[in-house]
Structures are given as C-alpha cells and as structure tokens.
Design brief:
alpha/beta; two-stranded antiparallel sheet; 3 helices
Length: about 100
C-alpha cells in the first residue's frame, strides 16, 4: 500500500495463474483504498489485446476495466515478433474511453 501502483496477478488455490477480470480489479482497488494512508496517486495497470478491434468493440472491451479503476492499459504483444506490426500499433496511439 506504500507503493504507487499495482499490476494485478491472480492465482487459484492450487497455485496456478488465472485470468484477472475487471471484478477482481474492483475488489483489489476497494481493499487498497481501505488500507492506504497516503493521498499520493495509485495506478492500476493491466495488459490486454485490442489489435484488430474497431472503435466500438475497443470501447466495449476497455470500459469494464476503466470502471473497475484501471488507470493504465498495456498492449500485450509478447506473442507477435513482427516489428512492423508492433510499430503500426504504436503509431495508432493509446486507446481511449469516451
């Protein structure tokens, strides 16, 4: 709680990683908000993919994360080694919520 952000990870009872959902982020944020004693900004960062989505689909995908309290969306392109794809995505700029 003394740090300035969170990159959420979720594990099940067997110790295996599970997908983090907006509801998980909402729950984590509520806990953090109830325990923090500093008024410094606190960012919540998630990774995801929006490549190939039109504007409306991107809004549909991002809105639940925004509403849950996410402040940063990182484009996960770990599985695409094509530099041209990566540069094209960077040139599109960051996604936004309307």
């Amino acid at each position: 709680m003394r740090c300035d952000g969170l990159l959420p990870v979720k594990m099940n009872k067997e110790g295996k990683f599970e997908e983090v959902l907006p509801a998980d982020v909402r729950q984590m944020k509520a806990y953090i908000d109830s325990k923090r004693t500093t008024s410094m900004p606190f960012d919540i960062v998630v990774e995801g993919k929006t490549a190939g989505l039109d504007h409306a689909k991107m809004q549909e995908k991002l809105r639940p994360w925004f509403e849950a309290g996410v402040t940063w969306w990182i484009k996960a392109m770990w599985d695409d080694p094509n530099l041209d794809h990566i540069l094209a995505r960077v040139k599109q700029g960051p996604p936004s919520i309307e």
